[in-house]
Specification:
single chain, 242 residues, alpha/beta, Rossmann fold, 2 domains, six-stranded parallel β-sheet, 11 helices, elongated
Length: 242
């Protein structure tokens, strides 16, 4: 296991002072950083509503999607669908199982890479960089999504929720990757769309950070400018290696 207490000693360092100018690895968040996961989930919600209501759909997919945002369960947990059905008195075990199948199928099938992701990763690999996935999805979901969009072979390591038993912003994901690759925080860049879950914990550990603003559907804002670089599109990160 990663010695978190030992490694947390580095949080007192200023990344601007310790960054030597040479990166050895890039740690990528997956959902909404490599591909538009929210759009895929909305399509899944649309198909679920079409199944439930047949020809009489009166609610937008965003209504069901909001159930996943409540924080009552996880962002991908089926119980969110169950609550939607129960609150409308339309729950049956058979239809619920079918909705769960639709959800898994459609959110995977509707994944689309952001522009220039493959070309950018090709160039990063040619630079000799280690590429890592840091995700709160479980390993099976991460593998399925990366396979669907044709990116699985680009990554040297996948750190998922079931890898460390935690989720971001807990530092365990980042520390596990550093330990497995044998690299230092100042040699590492973290790319993510979530300020609170990707950028803030990475920067506290002394890792360089790139905020994927193009994927931040939460519109969290960046008033504190807590990131080192802002990416308005995925390929912008190539400018960091000139």
């Amino acid at each position: 296991m990663v010695d978190i207490e030992k490694n947390m000693n580095i949080i007192q360092k200023d990344p601007e002072q310790i960054y030597p100018g040479v990166l050895k690895a890039v740690l990528f968040d997956m959902d909404n950083t490599l591909f538009d996961f929210v759009a895929a989930k909305l399509e899944a919600c649309r198909e679920i509503l079409s199944f439930i209501w047949k020809e009489n759909v009166t609610e937008e997919p965003s209504v069901l999607f909001r159930y996943f945002l409540r924080g009552v369960y996880g962002f991908e947990d089926y119980e969110n669908i169950q609550d939607y059905m129960q609150e409308r008195n339309i729950f049956t075990a058979q239809d619920y199982r079918k909705c769960c199948e639709i959800y898994e199928r459609e959110k995977l099938q509707n994944l689309e890479l952001y522009p220039a992701v493959t070309d950018t990763l090709d160039k990063l690999k040619k630079l000799g960089l280690k590429l890592v996935i840091i995700t709160d999805a479980d390993s099976n979901h991460a593998l399925a999504r990366l396979t669907k969009v044709g990116l699985l072979n680009y990554f040297d390591l996948i750190v998922a929720a079931d890898t460390t038993g935690t989720k971001k912003p807990d530092p365990a994901h980042f520390l596990f990757a550093l330990e497995m690759l044998g690299i230092k925080p100042e040699e590492t860049l973290v790319v993510g769309d979530n300020i609170k879950r990707d950028i803030v914990p990475a920067r506290k550990l002394g890792l360089r950070t790139a905020y994927a603003s193009y994927g931040d559907w939460r519109t969290e804002g960046e008033t504190d400018q807590c990131f080192d670089f802002r990416l308005d599109k995925f390929s912008d990160m190539l400018e960091l290696f000139h």
